[in-house]
Amino acid sequence: MSQIRIGISGWRYGPWRKDFYPKGLPQTDELAFASRAVNSIEINGSFYSLQTPERYIAWRDDTPEDFVFSVKGPRFITHMRRLKDIEEPLANFFASGPLLLGDKLGPILWQFAANMPFDEERFARFFELLPIDRQAARRCARHCAERLRDNGGTDIKGNAPLRHAVEVRHESFLCEAFVTLLRKHKIALVVADSAGKWPYVEDVTADFIYMRLHGDVELYSSGYTAAALRRWRKRIEAWSHGGQPDDAHLIHDHAPPARSSRDVYCYFDNDQKVHAPYDARRLLESLKLDDALQTEPGVEPGVEL
């Protein structure tokens, strides 16, 4: 059985207050509210700066038992260093505490800038550095900066696989070599709907699918119509059953290894006009995944997709 996780990218937005979030809800309770309206959230604060072990623990404890986070890797690695000399920054990231999410840690997202072209050697080296499980992440974290040592950021027992996903925005990635490299390392290529601004591809390169829906018509600000959400629902159903849509937008015609199922992670990033949480709820409802959620944040019932 596959897991289907539908959620939002981030949760702390001013325009959402007194709209998605009820009037009078303390800001400290926003994650608790949001995590009971969707079944996954993409942490994007980790993209802008290193978080702390205490913060990851608080996020873990504020959310339901069956909840899952994805975590966005630091832009210092992807945008500033552009994958050069990143051994210590990568160690710093894993030392900062994402492992403390425990079983609530889902995929780690690595987003690259639109002016970052494909360099096969550089990306191959990056993929080799990415830890494939908790034990490898703990080993990586040992090489962190002095200020992060002994901070408790990797104090979690046992082992579990780690998943990684890559979102690219430069046309040079539309080549078979990139898809082959992703499949070799079992890293997902993000299906990114960006209102036509960046490349849109749907090659399956891992045992899971990672989707980011940035806006149907206008980047970050337009919502998704019932017809658009119906299209996404059908694609999610195809992927979750181990297949792919008949009209998939592919770089590489070679089909991925057959599977009976794949997990799907889908995040709405059209947050500017408060569409994201409502679109996520409607998609959850259309997939019959809303029954397990604990709040009803004002989405009109009975929306047929």
What's this entry about, in short?
The protein is α/β, with parallel strands linked by helices. The protein has helices spanning 30-34, 45-48, 53-61, 75-80, 87-95, 120-129, 134-141, 176-185, 226-240, 276-286, and strands spanning 4-9, 40-43, 68-72, 105-111, 164-167, 188-189, 191-193, 208-213, 263-268. Helix 6 (120-129) runs parallel beside helix 8.
CATH architecture heading: Alpha-Beta Barrel
Number of strands: 9
The CATH superfamily is known as Protein of unknown function UPF0759
Total individual domains: 1
CATH class: Alpha Beta
Arithmetic mean pLDDT? 94
Molecular shape: globular
Tell me the series of helices and strands, N- to C-terminal. EHEHHEHHEHHEHEEEHEH
CA(first)-CA(last) distance: 23 Å
Number of helices: 10
Strand content: 5-15%
Low-confidence stretches: 296-305
Helix/strand-derived category reads alpha/beta
| Main sheet properties | 9 strands, parallel
Radius of gyration: 19 Å
Helix content: 25-40%
**Any idea of the CATH topology?**
TIM Barrel
Q: Main sheet: which strands, in order across?
A: 6-5-4-3-2-1-9-8-7
Topology:
Elements: E1 4-9, H1 30-34, E2 40-43, H2 45-48, H3 53-61, E3 68-72, H4 75-80, H5 87-95, E4 105-111, H6 120-129, H7 134-141, E5 164-167, H8 176-185, E6 188-189, E7 191-193, E8 208-213, H9 226-240, E9 263-268, H10 276-286
Parallel strand pairs: 1-2, 1-9, 2-3, 3-4, 4-5, 5-6, 7-8, 8-9
Question: How would you describe what is shown here?
Answer:
Helix 5 packs across helix 7, helix 6 (120-129) packs parallel to helix 8 (176-185) and helix 9 (226-240) crosses helix 10 (276-286). The protein has helices at residues 30-34, 45-48, 53-61, 75-80, 87-95, 120-129, 134-141, 176-185, 226-240, 276-286; strands at 4-9, 40-43, 68-72, 105-111, 164-167, 188-189, 191-193, 208-213, 263-268. The protein is globular and about 50 Å long. 43% of the residues are buried. By secondary structure, the chain is of the alpha/beta class. Helices cover 29% and strands 14% of the residues. Strand 1 (4-9), helix 1 (30-34) and strand 2 form a beta-alpha-beta unit. It has a 9-stranded parallel β-sheet. The model is unreliable at 296-305 (pLDDT under 50). The chain has a single domain (4-286), classed as TIM Barrel (Alpha-Beta Barrel), CATH 3.20.20.410.
